[in-house]
Amino acid sequence: MNVYQSYRFLLARLHLDSLAGETTAKSIKYTLKTLKSGARSLPQAYEDAIKRIESQTPSRISLAKEVLSWIIIAKRPLTLRELQHALAIEIGETELDEDNIPDVTEIISVCAGLVAIDKQSDIIRLVHYTTQEFFEHIEKAWIPQARSMVVNKCVTYLSFNTVLAEPAESPWLVPTILAENPFLNYAALYWGMHAFQLYSEEKSNAIAGTHELALRFLQNESLVQSFSLVLAHVYPEIFSQSLPVKGTGLHMAAFFGLAHLSASLPEQQDDTRVEPDSGDMWERTPLLYAAVGGHMAVVKLLLERADVDINRTDSNGNGPLSYAAMNGHAAIVQLMLAKDGVDVNSKNQLGETPLLYAAARGHMGVVKLLLERADVDINRTDSRGNGPLSYAAMKGHVAIVQLILAKDGVDVNSKNERGRTPLLYAAEREDVAVVKLLLERADVDINYIYNRGNGPLSYAAMGGHVAIARLMLAKDGVDVNSKNQWGGTPLLYAVEGRHEALVKLLLERADIDVNCKRDIRPTSHIRYEREVVAGTLLERPDVDAGFQDWNGLTPLRHAEIRGYKEIVKLLKDHIAFH
Fold first, then answer.
1. Residue 126, φ and ψ in degrees, nearest 5
2. Is residue 540 classed as helix, strand or coil in its secondary structure?
3. What is the pTM of this model?
4. 533-552 pLDDT, tens digit each
5. What are phi and psi for residue 467, nearest 5 degrees?
6. Predicted pLDDT at 32
7. Which one, 14, 184, 328, 550, has least CB within 10 Å?
8. HSE (side-chain half, CA atoms, 13 Å) at 492
9. Residue 471: which H helix or E strand, with range?
């Protein structure tokens, strides 16, 4: 069905619904005369549907508006059962009254043809995508309390005695509780998101009732514990250890970025007050969760408190600054760096620092802020021996490599536990830009040998990286014949890899050892389809085509045994000529 046909079908459906309320032949004829056709008549058809909704009894109008509010605002499509339970929630009640669940026929009829149910998925939706666009324009005027209603109903459902009463004590019951409470999956996953959006868009005096409901929920330790367990069960692949478990309401408020609630919870004067710097099961504090999520307002208000430790770490050894750095929240990093006593070089159990995290993940703004600190240790490495420069080089973050190299005291030849340097990493991944930056340094060791004996040029040769090799060969002092512990050289690697262009490039060097050998050397190690490479090697007048390997076999004999006819011919011609 094309777009035009879709419009026509939708319009016909809406027109039929507009006739449903007429009771006489005369009124039906009059209505038909006033109907418009074409896509441009859709807005009028929607306006007519709204008028039909408004012409109903107050209770039916209220139901229609709530149905449409849920469908329009929901973060994901709702099933009919989920929507029925959402509609049945009564603010102020402590449990769901199933007698308050509306019938499906009633739900459809009160909406004047604007909603439909997908029979296969049982999802209730708007009849057309243009319906969503229409309601986005009229939402604030026609259903101004829709978003606060959604937040209030979600938190009310989560507060029901019959919903989250048991998981805190019996986590294994979570699947059963989810099955018995159809709206729990949605309420648990999206209450915080809806609340964050509402607090961001509305003035505080307009959401006073919402604030009180949420505050009571977050002050209930048992409910909060159960809520976190349900949330982790519903979406474990996203939350896992990033979700507060056995924490407080303040942990949850900080996790979702709810600044108003984060400000109120520590200020309570009774036994519902929460400690602002308490740790959850992972030893993570509210400040840490706010830093992870990039919730600037929450971070700011917590940092203003004298009883919040900016350097407190979780069970992995990561603190708020590290989490802000690893997630690229530059504004939060800047705020923390302005705080007296912040440990800019804090290490976790693996030795990872804020600078290392930022460099590895390519967060340029964060790296720049950290490098402006005089006390930052630019060469501090993790437990594997990799520092910020190595991580930036191995990940190909060119601008960050450039920024780090401009810092006094940087160790451009830093080695990890396996002996790998930034230049080795860049050469191996064929990162021309990073290699070029590193080679511009006078103190870079271009001939550094990795613990297996291979240097940067050998790695470039292995991968056939011609552009990288060309840069290195232009560097004064490069050892074109560097050998690893098995006698492998750049030329050997280029030949074995059938990298013709690289072989030619290496053979342009007057100081290249064309007769270098390992167990066997280039001319005797020719494999299938290497005729061009063999020919390139044989163009050198100083190549020894008659050399015998440790088995006493010559290159010609190797080629004959393997049936490489073209190579046999090349070798015989070379031997005959020389």
1. -75, 155
2. coil
3. 0.83
4. 665 666 677 776 677 766 77
5. -60, -40
6. 35
7. 550
8. 20
9. helix 466-473
Residue 523 is classified by DSSP as G
- Contacts for 412 with CB less than 8 Å, ≥ 6 apart: 389, 405, 422, 423, 438, 441, 443, 444
Q: Cα(250)–Cα(230) distance, rounded to whole angstroms?
A: 18
Pairing of strands 123-126, 115-117: antiparallel
CA 95 to chain CA centroid, nearest Å:
38
| Per-residue tokens: 294 | 């990039």
pLDDT at 538: 65
Residue 258 to residue 255: CA distance in whole angstroms: 8
Give the number of other Cβ atoms within 10 Å of residue 204's Cβ: 10
Rounded to the nearest 5°, which phi and psi values hold at 341?
Answer: 85, 0
358: tokens are 């930022």
Q: Contact at 8 Å (CB) between 521 and 547?
A: yes
pLDDT tens readout for residues 469-527: 999 999 999 999 998 888 889 988 888 888 989 988 998 998 998 877 765 444 444 44
What are the tokens at 237? 């692949």
In this predicted structure, the answer to whether residue 22 has a pLDDT above a threshold of 50 is no
Q: Name beta bridge partners: 126.
A: 115
Which amino acid does the sequence have at 573? D
pLDDT digits (tens, 9 = 90+) for 144-194: 999 999 999 999 999 998 888 776 667 788 889 999 999 999 999 999 999
To which residue do tokens 């979780």 refer? 314
Residue 187 near residue 158 (C-beta atoms within 8 A): yes
Structure-token match 């046999």, residue found: 568
| Cα–chain center distance at 515 | 51
Strand partners, 218: none
Tokens 């064929």 found at: 430
SS3 126: strand
Read off the tokens for 270.
């009774």
Record the tokens describing residue 327, joined without a space. 């997630």
Retrieve residue 365's tokens: 């703004």
C-beta separation of 388 from 373 below 8 A: no
Which amino acid is residue 476, in one-letter code? Answer: D
If you ran DSSP here, which 8-state letter would residue 41 be given?
Answer: G
Which one-letter DSSP state was computed for residue 115? Answer: E
| Residues 243/255, Cβ–Cβ less than 8 Å | yes
pLDDT tens digits along 315-346? 999 999 999 999 999 999 999 999 999 999 99
User: E strand or H helix at 212, and its extent?
Assistant: helix 208-219
564 residue type, one letter:
Y
Q: In sequence order, what E strands does 459-554 have?
A: none
CA distances from 175 to 178, 231, 304, 325, 449 (A): 5, 11, 41, 36, 57
Dihedral of CA atoms 214, 215, 216, 222 in degrees, nearest 10, equals 90
Sheet with 115-117, side-by-side order of all strands = 78-79, 123-126, 115-117
What are φ and ψ of residue 443, in 5° steps? -95, 5
Q: Which helix (H) or strand (E) holds 78?
A: strand 78-79
End-to-end CA, the chain: 77
- Kindly give the pairing relationship between strand 78-79 and strand 123-126: antiparallel
- Cα separation, 495 vs 537, whole angstroms: 9
Cβ atoms of 127 and 13 within 8 Å: the answer is: yes
Q: Tokens 């949330």, residue?
A: 231
